[in-house]
Specification:
The protein is α+β, with helices and mostly antiparallel strands. It is 17% helix and 44% strand.
């Protein structure tokens, strides 16, 4: 991973145009080619980013008259998207070999929920059939990759509680998977025991479906018959 702390401006050109004015930011370039621009705040979400696969070109220029230095990175992605990062002053530029990450170890309930759904995907939707559990991608494994009743690909993210970060994670997977002509179009479904209202709104905005699953019912545990005495 390459980490650059610098005073920079950032311009995105693609489905829309966006501009980040000059400020000190962290630019991350991951081993898979993903580029993300972060500020000092806002938790994990970058201000702007470009997913892999992409092409990164670098230009450096010196102004002999003013003594100023400027570097420009142009990251070109799919569908003619581009992210242009103009560096005005670099504070730090380091590269770190991080190796292969073992991935997220899910808690017992979430892991078991994923296993049960892999064995019975029709609990999510009628006619759904499993292609593969932990479907590998360059940005992490998709919990369940399925086909629906019409044969279309469906990427499923399984959470114990469905929150905004689950929708964001699934959005990144869908952006990546829809670049594969063998799969696209890929539909996304967030599955959880409970999906929070904010996550429902964001999922609807991203054209992602959500499903709430009764964990006990999925395990075959039925509540006892009601008794009057």
């Amino acid at each position: 991973m390459r980490l650059v702390v610098a005073r920079c401006t950032v311009d995105y050109r693609g489905r829309l145009e966006a501009h980040l004015p000059e400020a000190v930011r962290l630019v991350m370039v991951k081993a898979d080619g993903c580029v993300a621009v972060h500020c000092d705040g806002g938790a994990y979400k970058p201000l702007n980013w470009m997913n892999a696969p992409n092409r990164l070109s670098q230009e450096v220029s010196d102004d002999e008259h003013t003594g100023t230095w400027r570097g420009v990175w142009t990251i070109t992605g799919a569908n003619s998207e581009s992210l242009i990062i103009t560096f005005h002053e670099v504070t730090s530029d380091i590269s770190v070999e991080m190796g292969i990450d073992p991935g997220l170890i899910k808690d017992g309930v979430e892991s078991h929920l994923q296993k049960l759904l892999a064995e019975n995907p029709t609990a999510i939707a009628d006619g759904l059939r499993l292609m593969r559990r932990e479907y590998p991608t360059d940005i992490g494994p998709v919990d369940l990759m399925c086909r629906d009743i019409h044969g279309a690909a469906v990427a499923i993210e399984v959470k114990r509680r469905g929150e905004i970060d689950g929708v964001e994670q699934l959005t990144r997977y869908l952006d990546f998977l829809n670049q594969d002509p063998r799969l696209r179009p890929v539909r996304g479904v967030l599955v959880a025991q409970q999906v929070r209202p904010q996550a429902r709104v964001l999922a609807r905005h991203r054209n992602i479906d959500w499903v709430e699953i009764d964990y006990d019912e999925l395990r075959g545990i039925r509540p006892p018959n009601p008794r009057l005495f």
